Structure prediction request, 96 residues.
Amino acid sequence: MAKKKSKTLAEKKHMQKVAELGCIACRKLGHFGTPAELHHIQSGMLGKKTDNFSVIPLCPYHHRTSNYSYHQNPMWFTKVFGTQTELLQETLEWLK
Prediction:
């Protein structure tokens, strides 16, 4: 079993700033400050996570726990909120 790589200080700082933005889906719906967890956008390889700089903030409802979450209904989520790549670009713009 491969040993899990520790996050660098730069990764930890970036991930904290992203989480502090609040859920990107809720923001698009006009609800600001919703506590967020991090979603690693998917790379081209099935099920393969990207690095720790390629994360978007999603509340549990939009991330994994509802029928309207990315993990439960990715096609609907993408249609309503945009692709993971588009959401990553928006997230990075907000951090500037």
In short: The first strand starts at residue 37 and ends at 40. The helical segments are 9-20, 24-28, 60-65, 74-81, 84-95. The chain has five helices and two strands.
